[in-house]
Amino acid sequence: MSVRSPAVARFLEHRAGVAGAAILVAAAVVAVLAPLFIPADALDVTRVTAAAWQAPGAGHWLGTDHTGRSVAVLMAQGAGTSLFVGLTAAVLSVGIGTLVGITSGHFGGLVAGTLLRVTDFFLVLPALVLAIALSTVLPRGLGTIVLAIGLTSWPSTARMVRAQTLTIEARPFVERARALGGGHAHVIGRHVLPSVVPLVLVNATLAVASAIVAESTLAFLGLGDPTRISWGALLHQAQLHGAVPQRAWWYLLPPGVAIVAVVLAFTLVGRALEAVVTPKR
Questions:
Q1: For residue range 100-142, what is the model confidence (pLDDT) as tens digits?
Q2: Are the beta carbons of 55 and 243 closer than 8 angstroms?
Q3: Which of 24, 88, 192, 195 has the most CB atoms at less than 10 Å from its CB?
Q4: Residues 6+ apart with CB under 8 A from 204
């Protein structure tokens, strides 16, 4: 007999969230298995034998690009890069935001004032413009993209975590813990973190969606890693080599649909998790 937790049962009640989770599982399977089954010859422009701008058919389900490479193979290879950047940038962003939010909410005073001014500074600056500036100044690579996105998208998480921290620390059981001699580590570790983590996890799913959009935008602008294939990089290559004049819709549409589908899936999962964490009474 299988035992289903109440949280899982509530999540399964949200059909949109379940559909989003199914899309994410499929994307993750493709991202993990694609490098294992795609031969190196399929990605090497000097070894391809298919014609350029070949329309979708039996041999190439999504047609070929300007070099004769299969768009389906490029899509599968790019899934790993897009998901990796989205997940790692979201982890960095949520991690910074959580640290800043808990620290400013718990300690207050000069520490909170300083951290809030820094947070306001990043909130005022357009995140995408700052990410573009960082990607231009720093060496090109996946690490730079992750750093640029993570360092520019944490303020909203910090605000949310700080508000939740202040709410938790105003409750009687926290005041009782302090009266009994509980220090900063005890209050944060035993009372604040358990209450903050569920909201942080929900915010993380939405942060991944935003990070994937940011990575795709940077790659489309030509600021991504030139040695990596991603969905945004495919759109950049399609625009750069004239897919529109060639009427090669199969080179433009699949990467855009993939980005929209995965971002929508993360958003649906995040909304479903939000409903599970904070159910309406």
A1: 999 998 887 888 889 999 998 888 888 888 888 888 888 888 8
A2: no
A3: 192
A4: 90, 91, 94
